[in-house]
Amino acid sequence: MPLAISYALLIPLLLWGAIIALRRVVKNSHPPYPPGPKPKFLIGNALDIPVEGASEIYMEWGRKYNSGILHVEALGNHIIILNTVEDADELLEKRANNYSDRPVIPIAKMMGWHTQMPLLGYNDEWRFHRKICQQNFRQGAMSQYFPVQKRKVHEMLQGLLKTPEEFDEHNHMLSISLALSSMYGYDPISWKDPCVQAAEKAATLAGSLLAPGGSFVNIFPALGKIPAWVPGAISVRLAGEVRRYTEEMKRIPMEYAKRKFADETAVPSLVADMLERKFTEGISDEEENAIENIAHTVYTAASDTTIGATKTFFYYMAKHPEVQTKAQAEIDRVVGSKRLPDFSDRERMPYLEAMYREVLRIAPPIPMCVPHAVSEDDYYKGYFIPKGAVVLANIWGMTHDENRYPNPYTFNPERFLDATGALNDDHRVLAYGFGRRICVGKYVGSSTLWLMMVSVLACFEIERSKDSHGNYVDMNDEYEDFGIVRHKKKIACTFKVRSEEAKKLISTTYEA
């Protein structure tokens, strides 16, 4: 059996080697590729591509090769890295027609994730999905989500009041339950809900497979044909597990939504609205499938990025009490102590807005944007960018560019304010991506994160944890990658209610 595995790996390697060797015999007539590490014989830069901390490593490469655009090649696959906003804007924004495709990720289909909107190719199917998203998630449609966003944030406040030591679980519940409620009208009541557990397990396993170098199947798709029972077929077995969890993630809330609709007890949601139109005016199978895909995408991808941003917020509030104090002073001045913050307060809180921008600048949840793919050969700055190349925008590198953001590793909301304390013109949040593949849920994500931040600070003091001797526990600065998403590692902090008035406000709001 091990011999069979060896041949399964050896044959595609030999074929790739022959193809690459042949290419190098033929003289290329195109300009050079952008600079990057020197490729090795046969395997190219396969050993140079970082598995973790890619954004920081690509920044180092940019300094080493004195270029904002880089190139690596691994087994015939070309990868272009963009380290500057200027290059990303030129290629992903101005030349969006040629840079809006997605690379084919074989392991995604094996996991059942190939229908998620962020992974769809740049085609009519994606455009149809995009149209539905623009109708439902555009800035002008945000008010329809305000009630569920407020309810879920208030439930989080209640959780922090009752069991503050479980803040990490309350954070996860906010993100996942908000997505389930707004998409399906499904309200999980605890962390042990089967839908929540399926989502957590699927995301954890999928992250390891989607990470750079996470699976040889993405390089040699034929390996995906190996039976799961064959020793060494780890990716095939893990992909099968993700698929099973993914099917549960889809089945449970969809069956719930259909049952509630049939009972005439459905609450407003994306799927409930679809079912209403399906049985009144009629909709196409294409639209029904697209809405189901979008709902599942929001439930998986969007909730994970919100979790990452919230963890960063908790961490920096505990680490920088002076920032927290300034934010709370603004909240007290604008909101007072007789009510909880609301969306209508946002435009009157420049410091909170600056803090929101700084959270997403210093630690964008997706440090390397979801990969783009080139549709046709292109030329830029005298370099050749081949058709089919994968293009990675180093968002983390851009938000840590010293020319754009002095002292980029310092958490400093004031960088987004002018001398009068008003917001400056740096209103662009790079964390949401570029071009036509920019995050379609950015307005929902922005309002959710902002309301969570302002509500938690209105009610709680976030402090560093102390040991049994009353000394502060050291806080590590480390983050960890889960595929393309990055989360802050475990945080040692505590939540203390600010006042009896705040406690009363939390206790008298929505029931948890």
From TrEMBL:
<feature type="binding site" description="axial binding residue">
    <location>
        <position position="439"/>
    </location>
    <ligand>
        <name>heme</name>
    </ligand>
</feature>
<keyword id="KW-0349">Heme</keyword>
<dbReference type="InterPro" id="IPR001128">
    <property type="entry name" value="Cyt_P450"/>
</dbReference>
<dbReference type="Pfam" id="PF00067">
    <property type="entry name" value="p450"/>
</dbReference>
<comment type="pathway">
    <text>Secondary metabolite biosynthesis.</text>
</comment>
<keyword id="KW-0732">Signal</keyword>
<keyword id="KW-0560">Oxidoreductase</keyword>
<dbReference type="GO" id="GO:0005506">
    <property type="term" value="F:iron ion binding"/>
</dbReference>
<feature type="signal peptide">
    <location>
        <begin position="1"/>
        <end position="21"/>
    </location>
</feature>
<dbReference type="InterPro" id="IPR050364">
    <property type="entry name" value="Cytochrome_P450_fung"/>
</dbReference>
<keyword id="KW-0408">Iron</keyword>
<keyword id="KW-0479">Metal-binding</keyword>
<dbReference type="InterPro" id="IPR036396">
    <property type="entry name" value="Cyt_P450_sf"/>
</dbReference>
<dbReference type="GO" id="GO:0016705">
    <property type="term" value="F:oxidoreductase activity, acting on paired donors, with incorporation or reduction of molecular oxygen"/>
</dbReference>
<dbReference type="GO" id="GO:0004497">
    <property type="term" value="F:monooxygenase activity"/>
</dbReference>
<dbReference type="InterPro" id="IPR002401">
    <property type="entry name" value="Cyt_P450_E_grp-I"/>
</dbReference>
<protein>
    <recommendedName>
        <fullName>Cytochrome P450</fullName>
    </recommendedName>
</protein>
<comment type="similarity">
    <text>Belongs to the cytochrome P450 family.</text>
</comment>
<dbReference type="GO" id="GO:0020037">
    <property type="term" value="F:heme binding"/>
</dbReference>
<keyword id="KW-0503">Monooxygenase</keyword>
